Amino acid sequence: MTGNPVGRVVAVCAAKGHNFSKPPCLSIRLLKGLGVEGDAHMGEKVKHLFLARKNPDAPNLRQVHLMHTELFEEVRAKGFDVKPGDLGENVTTEGIDLLDLSTGTKLHLGDEAVIEVTGLRNPCYQIDNFQKGLLHATLDKSGPKLVRKTGIMSIVLVGGDVRPGDTIRVEPPEGPHRPLELV
Fold it and tell me: In order of start, what are the domains of the chain with their CATH numbers?
């Protein structure tokens, strides 16, 4: 995969309950078609509480949530203190512009796991419950378009263990770039 971006895993996080934040772990195990073993959002069908109430039979396009550590640096400059797992992500990354990836991009995490990017996370009011004003700090404008910076969602294609320090290799999909939409 010469020429494709390479980043690294900064932290991995999981929580059994539907908590806003997820504690950092030494490693997580990704399960094909399900998500993060032992995490509240693991499953073939949608597990996000709000989305599951709307359509419990919808496929789970949010099995693994990734967030870039560069966002933490950006909001820190605005006076907020955010660490890996605080905003509910499973994998905190560094060195890859997650928000600019194409829908369908494959990310190879470590030696085994492969996930496919499905779309953007839609930040909600709970971010302001965590730290007042943080929701606004994670949003931006690009002309008339609202830019949501709170990470991306994905599904697990190939399971495996993921640890801090693992490399992330980017495999773009064939065809034209398809901007990420909310999932």
Answer: 6-171 (2.40.33.20)
